[in-house]
Write a structure and sequence with these properties.
seven-stranded mixed beta sheet; about 15% strand; FtsX-like permease family protein; 13-stranded mixed beta sheet; alpha+beta; 24 strands; elongated; transmembrane; ABC3_permease_C
């Protein structure tokens, strides 16, 4: 009877794995062969179990340090007892030896020069990515380093009010004038405190010359809290006197022509507010990344109306910064400030209780809280809408990393696609004794060279395009910021990461090629695996995400611009008066000059510009008082006659200001409908406005009600508006409404008239609709950046898909030939080759679209007036992504489908 077939005995697998891990690759094949032959003989002589034990012991004997360094193998006896002679004694140099590295780079340059097209594609992709990253990282770096240069910055805070209103919790950084003295008196742990009142630029006169400079009203503690370098003078004495002024280095050079100006006189202000000061210090210019900007500092007691408001706890007009003692932290002081709020703001607490407000989780209805100095720039609510949301900074960093990652993915895909043409080269090198680590370093060296060239080209491109970037996005970037240690560390880290990811993976894959298979021409990578598919999905996910964000951001900007503002912004010219002339006198002269001009519909004046004009000044005056037990806060707007006519607004109750009524310029006001609602009056006309405690008879009477209109951006908090006329308060802006048919030449005509009536003041007029558009400059800037980034991301993604398609079709050349021989049409072949890519793009859309919806919904929640995200945005982006992918792949698929099948199958 025939014995059943038995499997031959095998040595223990753990021993083979151990030997493979410890033994040099060039010894492994020969050593395993001899050991396996010896195992077979021992199994026949002693049995399988004993042979396996002897095999394991034999492997362990070779695991000695000297064995790992041997360059040739020798066994004392083979299975046949024949001696095995050692190989040659040639010792290969260490793969990181300087001579080897020099050789690697020499070969790398030769290889890249041979494949110039491949190298050019990679260099262009990386240089564009690096250039964009430099811009975005510099922008983010500038924002993230705001106010970081102050010593003891961790002890500096801005105070703000927290009010847990039933409708919405509100935070406000505007403090009343008596707040700071009371805080310092009640809390000794407050080491220093300074009020900072910044308005429009002031008129400065020196030796008969006039300048517009930003003069900040503050307290002496300003120089103690903040560490702006004081070039001349004493921090303790510079602002000791009310007649002292500290000026910036730039102002000293501009006004005096020198910085040696301590003791010299300066006149600041105009009209009755004009006063002479003595220079007591020179302060270094505030850097770009400072929340506080200045040309000069004077005492806050010099502010007009200071004496009348110094005990008024209802009017919040300025931010306050404090510096805590080292032994006190933020939480401790905030808890101790609760009695302070109850002591000085009982009316506010009572009003909140009337509304039914409930304490927040910290137990506060109304409280004084602290914001870290490092966070002030990013808190738009307490900063009055001037800062930059931290989300924008993270978006910029994310976009930069997205583009860089897409470029890395392209690098990987192109390198793998190129590996087919270099397979025989790798096989020959391995057959001649090259080790894996040597091949890895050599191929990685080529990638490093490409990255270096791409990085250098990217930095050069950034240098050339920086002026255009700054002009387009109103940025203040400097390439010198790249020399900061933190930024250098970031750039070096990004560069190393790119070379590791983009160069290391393809080098590792090529170094693993099987020598025998390569030389036989049988090298074939499997169909796209998890990693390659993931790279394609990641690319298109990021590209689609950026495209969705771009479209939605652009829609929100268009929505804000098209929203009714409550007035007619068309055909209105806004003229900043400046500080060189008296605005009220210029308004009178302009009215006289234009009175008989049929192209001029109306002329008026105001204290607040609408939108962001050429002078880039935005001011706000908020009046707070108690009306019949209610806390009222309203925008207090100075206007002149014909204001409503100039802006095309109608009165819904009462009347407009009229020159026939002399009292209209003394104590008469016009309010908006929301103001009337806040007062709780069904018929507000005739009611007297003023604080309940005011018994002086100076209350203002309401003579008219107008519909609500937006005096400030829709992104900012809107308040009811109260308009008044005053002959004593200055006019800062003049509005002129012109007839539509004369709009083209109206600006030049006004300029000529202005040069006659105010030759000493620069004519920097602009159209009101342009000013309003400038409100949304930040949103438009974000949309532009996202648009630029998404366009680059799509192009780089298509480049990567192009490389993958080339690689795939090369692998399937014979398959295509067989399909054509079997009768497949060109259309069928294109469908077969393209559907795998379409599946990946669809998967990318399924990932990107929900993320885009979530992110943009979160961003839109910051706006009181916002759009609803449309489903058509996602459908449009999805369809466009699929069509772009098909167009990219079709370049190769159509070409492959048209090839003669005889050519495809010739090697068979």
């Amino acid at each position: 009877m025939k014995k059943p077939h038995q499997n031959p005995p095998t040595p223990p697998a753990w021993a083979d794995r151990l030997l493979g891990a410890l033994c040099p690759p060039y010894l492994l094949e020969e050593l395993l062969g001899d050991l396996h032959e010896q195992f077979a003989d021992q199994a026949a002589e002693f049995g399988t179990a004993k042979a396996r034990r002897l095999y394991g012991l034999e492997v362990i004997k070779f695991c000695r340090p000297y064995f790992l360094k041997r360059q040739a193998a020798s066994l004392t006896q083979s299975a046949t007892r024949k001696p095995v002679y050692p190989a040659n004694d040639y010792s290969q140099p260490f793969f990181l030896h300087p001579d080897m590295l020099r050789n690697y780079f020499k070969i790398a340059f030769r290889s890249l020069w041979k494949s110039r097209g491949y190298a050019a594609i990679n260099v262009v992709g990386l240089s564009v990515a690096f250039c964009i990253c430099v811009f975005l990282f510099l922008t983010a770096y500038l924002q993230l380093t705001y106010d970081s240069f102050h010593q003891d910055g961790d002890r500096i805070f801005q105070t703000y009010f927290f009010s847990n209103d039933p409708e919405k919790a509100v935070r406000s950084g505007g403090m009343p004038l008596p707040f700071t003295p009371a805080l310092k008196a009640d809390y000794p742990e407050v080491e220093a405190a300074a009020r900072i009142l910044t308005g429009r630029k002031s008129l400065v006169e020196v030796n008969g010359k006039y300048f517009d400079k930003l003069v900040v009203h503050t307290d002496p503690d300003f120089l103690t809290i903040f560490s702006f370098p004081l070039l001349k003078g004493s921090r303790e004495l510079a602002l000791r006197n009310l007649s002292s002024i500290v000026i910036s280095e730039n102002m000293a050079r501009t006004v005096f022509g020198s910085t040696d100006v301590v003791g010299k006189a300066v006149r600041v202000g105009s009209g009755s507010d004009r006063k002479q000061y003595v220079v007591t210090g020179i302060l270094s210019d505030a850097p770009n990344n400072s929340s506080i900007q200045y040309d000069a500092l004077i005492r806050i007691e010099n502010t007009p109306n200071y004496q009348s408001d110094k005990d008024n706890w209802s009017a919040g007009s300025h931010p306050v910064f404090i510096k805590l003692s080292p032994r006190v932290d933020q939480a401790t002081l905030e808890s101790r400030l609760k009695p302070f709020a109850q002591k000085y703001f009982p009316g506010t607490l009572a009003e909140l209780k009337k509304k039914g407000a409930q304490p927040d989780p910290a137990g506060d209805l109304f409280a004084v809280r602290l914001q870290k100095l490092s966070n002030v720039h990013f808190d738009r609510e307490i900063d009055g809408g001037k800062g930059t949301p931290i989300a924008i900074v993270y978006i910029l960093l994310g976009i930069g990393l997205f583009i860089l990652l897409i470029a890395c993915i392209n690098f990987i895909n192109l390198s793998i696609a190129r590996s087919f043409t270099r397979a025989r080269e790798v096989g020959v090198r391995k057959s001649l004794g090259a080790l894996k680590n040597q091949l890895f370093v050599q191929i990685w060296g080529e990638s490093t060279v490409i990255c270096l060239i791409g990085f250098g080209a990217g930095v050069l491109l950034a240098y050339l395009l920086l002026p255009q970037f700054n002009a387009t996005f109103d940025a203040r970037l400097k390439l010198s910021s790249m020399l900061q240690p933190g930024f250098i560390g970031l750039i070096v880290g990004v560069f190393v990461l790119v070379t590791l990811i983009a160069g290391g993976y393809p080098a590792w894959q090529m170094a693993k090629f099987n020598t025998v298979e390569v030389l036989k021409g049988k090298l074939s990578l499997k169909r796209p695996g998890v990693l390659r598919n993931s790279l394609i999905v990641t690319q298109f996910s990021m590209a689609c995400l950026l495209a969705c964000c771009t479209i939605i951001a652009a829609q929100q900007v268009d929505f804000l611009r098209s929203r009714p503002l409550g007035f007619d912004k068309e055909q209105v010219i806004s003229i900043p008066v400046g500080n060189q002339v008296d605005g009220r006198q210029v308004l009178g002269r302009l009215r006289s000059q234009l009175a008989t001009d049929p192209s001029v519909v109306a002329v008026t004046g105001t204290s607040v510009n609408i939108g962001r004009g050429q002078d880039r000044v935005s001011s706000r005056s908020v009046l707070g008082f108690t009306y019949k037990g209610k806390n009222i806060a309203t925008d207090w707007l100075l206007v002149d006659y014909d204001y409503l006519k100039t802006l095309g607004m109608n009165v819904v109750a009462g009347r407009d200001f009229d020159r026939a009524y002399s009292m209209d310029s003394v104590n008469r006001v016009i309010v908006t409908e929301s103001m009337a609602k806040m007062l709780g009056e069904t018929n507000p006309v005739g009611q007297l406005l003023g604080d309940d405690t005011d018994s002086s008879g100076t209350k203002s009477q309401i003579i008219g009600v107008v519909p609500d209109f937006y005096l400030y951006s829709l992104a900012d908090k809107s308040r009811p508006i109260t308009m008044h006329i005053s002959h004593s308060e200055p006019i800062h802006y003049i509005f002129v409404r012109v007839a539509p048919q004369t709009l083209a030449g109206s600006m030049e005509k006004l300029k000529a008239v202005w040069q006659q009536i105010a030759p000493q003041s620069e004519f920097i007029a602009s159209f009101l609709d342009e000013n309003v558009d400038a409100w949304y400059q930040n949103e438009e800037r974000m949309a532009q950046i996202c648009s630029l980034a998404s366009g680059i991301a799509v192009l780089l993604s298509c480049l990567g898909l192009f490389a993958v398609a080339l690689m795939m079709i090369k692998q399937r050349t014979k398959e295509i030939g067989i399909r054509k021989v079997m009768g497949a049409s060109i259309g069928n072949i294109i469908l077969v080759l393209s559907r795998d890519f379409v599946k990946l793009v669809v998967l990318a859309l399924l990932i990107a679209l929900p993320i885009a919806w979530f992110l943009m919904n979160t961003w839109l929640d910051n706006y009181l007036q916002r759009i609803e995200i449309s489903l058509w945005v996602f459908l449009g982006v999805g369809l466009a992504a699929i069509l772009i992918a098909l167009a990219t792949v079709s370049i190769h698929t159509i070409k492959a489908a048209l090839v003669n099948p005889v050519t495809s199958l010739r090697s068979e």
